[in-house]
Amino acid sequence: MTTTVEATARSRTAPQRPGFFKRLFAEYGQEIVVLAAIVMLFAIVTMVNPRFISANNLTTIFSGNAYIAVAAIGMAMVIVTGNIDVSVGALIGVLATISGSLAVAGYPIWFAWLAPVVVGMAVNAIIGILVAYARIPSIVVTLGALSILRGGLISVTGGTWITDLPPDYLIAQKQIFGLPVPLVFMVVLTLLAAFWMRYTAFGRSLYAIGGNAEAALATGIPIARRTVAVFVIHGAFAGLATILFATQLQVIQSTVPPNLELTVITAAVIGGVSILGGSGTVIGSTLATILFATIGSALIFVNVSAYWLRAVIGLLILATVLADMLRRRGRGA
Amino acid sequence: MKLKSLIRHETFLAVLLVVVLIVLSFQSDRFFTIDNLLNQGRLMTEIGLIAIAMTFVIATGGIDLSVGSILGLTAILTGVFWQNVGLPLPVAATAAIAAGTFAGFVNGVIITRFRVPPLIATLATLALYRGLAEGISQARSVRGYPEWFYVLGQKDVLGVPTQLWILLFAAVVASVILAYTTWGRTVYAVGSNEVASRFSGLSVEKTKLALYTASGFAAAVAAVIFVSRVSTTRSDMGTGIELDAITAVVLGGTSIFGGRGTIIGTIIGLCLIQALKNGLSLAGIKGDGTIMLIGAVLILAILASNLFERSGTRT
Amino acid sequence: MRNVVLSALLALSFSTSLSNAQSVWTGGDDLPTNPLACDATPATAAAKPYDGGQPTNAPDRKGKTIKVVDVPKLVGIGYFNATSKGIADAAKEMGSMDAKTDGPSKANIDDQITLIDNYITSGVDGILFAANDPVAIAPVLKKALGAGINVVGYDANSSPDARQWFVNQAEFNGIAKAMVDSMAAEIGDEGAFAIVTSTFTTPNQARWIAEMAAYQTKCHPKMKWLETVEAQEDNILSFNQSNTLINKYGDELKGIFGMTSVATPAAADAVTQAKKCGSVAVVGLATPNAMKPYVGAGCVKSVVLWNPVDLGYAAAYVLRAVADGTLAPGATSVKAGKLGDLSVINGSEILLGAPTVFNKDNIGNFDF
């Protein structure tokens, strides 16, 4: 509990030191709320069971869900532009099957890794064109794409699992510099995307498109082309997420992971990406993914009755959302 | 212009539905029979009720993703109130519907009082309500309802499935409200321009609160009908139904950005999806092929209607 | 926010105490259990009269080619691919059955009901099903019987009066005994273990867990059940949940039961990647193909499963026999092609046989 008190004390003293902290809080408010929630959870659960912060459990929390975080990066970008994609879960299922089949069929490993990225970009290019040029709302296009991809996956594979994957292919089980590959993927991609969105003209234009499309058009931003580009980039992230997803185990289940799209969207929006577009960062979406993973693991560690697990997860998500809203309102007053 | 384009989409969709019905009846002689069509009506009632309420919500520019979870929660409560608490079944069902309606009201409060965007608010309650359903039920099913209860979900009244009457009634009432009352116009106004509506003195917050409550109510009624149709309760009931309902609503021409949409469009959209599911199955096409086709129809229908609309604007 | 979190934590501790008060394992159902004897004494089942349903005005299908649809719980998982293959094999062998498999893409009661309803309208002669929920599926199956269609279940039963026969892969208490005995053999009679299941609402899994709890209490009373976690039908989630269990209990955890063909390989992978092979045993229900890497590497010693190809095969033969009228209420056995005579149990069920325990020596012989 001491940590909680300390955290409160810190946030109370914040206003007395304007400048850096105020700016930080103004700009990364939601990220800080999510981070605080993660830290609080870690503190509380570790007191109950110190094994919670063992290296193994940290690996499980951070790298077992890294593919969700990577997919949420692309989703956050799409949502920042005022669009949405409900087909990403089905896409990842399809891409995993393509990648695994290529690896088993004896194609070079790099090709099996590259294929999901390229195919993901191609599929999302079509979605992006339908959204940007045919002017169909993104939720309609991606609801359609969800059905097509899910149905297509089952009719093509008939649901056969992919086994006998070559050991070199299983990159998610390897380590770089003593760190698990998924963790490195997640951190590097999040930072790259965050810098790109903040410091490049292209990246910043995404916020302009989502914030006020007419103004963006007036300032000469090619909205349609940028929208397609964002979907293509999102496709690339879905492909990268697929590499982690497909290589985590020695078998690939060629079905669409249940409710993956909802998990990814939830991570993006709880992380602070405004669903109306125009604000939010990918750091927030990654932190939110980590928050969910931490909650899931923490509740098992503190022996929450398994029947009530999901209710408590829901309550914690709602609490995070409301805390953010109260914070914003406090700032407004 | 707006009204004109609106009519255009629904007319186009109605024509498409007729074409689909004709084609499918040639594929299988068991498709276009009174029995089969009425039976399809029975199967689409739950999604239909939810989609009707969702039409209003989406017309204001909002969305409600928690309907599937409210359905699950209400179903569980119906069983728990009846068997574990010992209330008479009608009282139990009414209490459960009240609870489901309250769940919708809570959505409304979070959205209007705390100003949480609807998508985020209902994503959070989607997890919460499903969790409550699971926790309260302790994964137990409640079965063995009295025979009269099945009238609602499995029997006919005047030769038509009982629940289809409810759907028809809801559709008529909702159409009248949306098309002919001040309140209905408020819904469109809020969806077209929320800020302007607020300045022109419309009660935006009250309208929204009422809509999300109504959405909860619709999901709750659907839950009781669902329980009666399948004669058991499970905490995972209604999983994923939100996407099916939204598909029907947007196929029916309601703009996801708010400001336009009609009940008749939603109903045609629903019928089209149900006809495809059923007709293609009778024509020997497997479930996975059917869902692919429905996805394609959704995109193409909106695409076609966009093209019509644009060519209409030019002339 | 703090208040919310605090009250949530209070609620947690409250519910924890509640769950501790229960003596049964989490995830089991509340139906009566019937644990087998601890040694190999076979159970003596009391003879039960036929309790299945009958189709009304079924046409004479004897010897005619019949159109059959197979509706599994869901399509797209290895297990139901195997049953579907068995049905196709049997249909080909008999030459008088036109069978196809069509199921929901998610294990969803409503989608399954709608599919069956459509096939009733389309006029099939026979329906084979594996129910997502025994009660929810009953109305539509009764409708099928009412339309004169022959209805036979396999893998997951419905209420008995909603179908004619059910091909039982192995009795719940038989599976429970095989699972618990295998675990006890690996981790000893005082070891602690945890369970990874799909969801608590899945009927077969809930039944097995309840029977396992009863059998463990009776025959291995000193084994310790730690907890049961849900992991849907999602292999990455199963993997993460297994890891969390390993991390939480450390050396106390000696074994993990995988209750589904999705959870078991994922649990084995978690144990492999945590380098706990040999110190954490994995016992579970799984298809051999998915388990070959782990069994081959010696990380998993035994996998319990009936042969799902045989299950589908037997179901198809039973349906043929029902349509021909050779399997009628009161029969004590039925001929099922290469499987020979299968016996009738529990009134209206046909028993496939004892579950197979796959190990390093024989797993290579199976391909499904």
TrEMBL record, chain B:
Q: Which UniProt keywords apply?
A: Cell inner membrane, Cell membrane, Membrane, Transmembrane, Transmembrane helix, Transport
InterPro entries to which the protein is assigned, alphabetical: ABC_transp_permease (IPR001851)
**Protein name per the record:** Autoinducer 2 import system permease protein LsrD
The answer, when asked if Protease is one of the entry's keywords, is: no
> Transmembrane residues, as ranges?
49-82, 89-110, 116-133, 164-183, 209-227, 248-277, 289-308
Q: Does the keyword Transmembrane apply?
A: yes
Principal subcellular localisation of the protein = membrane
Source organism per UniProt: Aminobacter ciceronei
Membrane topology, as annotated, equals: Multi-pass membrane protein
Subunit and interaction comment: The complex is composed of two ATP-binding proteins (LsrA), two transmembrane proteins (LsrC and LsrD) and a solute-binding protein (LsrB).
TrEMBL record, chain C:
Subcellular location, principal: periplasm
Identify one Pfam family in the record: Peripla_BP_4
Task: Give all residue intervals belonging to the Periplasmic binding protein domain.
Answer: 71-325
**Keyword check for Amino-acid biosynthesis:** no
Question: InterPro entries attached here?
Answer: Bact_Solute-Bind_Prot2, LsrB, Peripla_BP_I, SBP_2_dom
Q: Which Gene3D superfamilies match?
A: 3.40.50.2300
Q: What keywords sit in the KW lines? A: Periplasm, Signal
Extent of the signal sequence: 1-21
Q: Where in the cell is it found?
A: Periplasm
UniProt record similarity statement: Belongs to the bacterial solute-binding protein 2 family.
**Its function?**
Part of the ABC transporter complex LsrABCD involved in autoinducer 2 (AI-2) import. Binds AI-2 and delivers it to the LsrC and LsrD permeases.
Assembly, in brief, is: The complex is composed of two ATP-binding proteins (LsrA), two transmembrane proteins (LsrC and LsrD) and a solute-binding protein (LsrB).
Protein name from the UniProt record = Autoinducer 2-binding protein LsrB
Please name the source species.
Aminobacter ciceronei
Its ancestry begins with: Bacteria, Pseudomonadati, Pseudomonadota, Alphaproteobacteria, Hyphomicrobiales
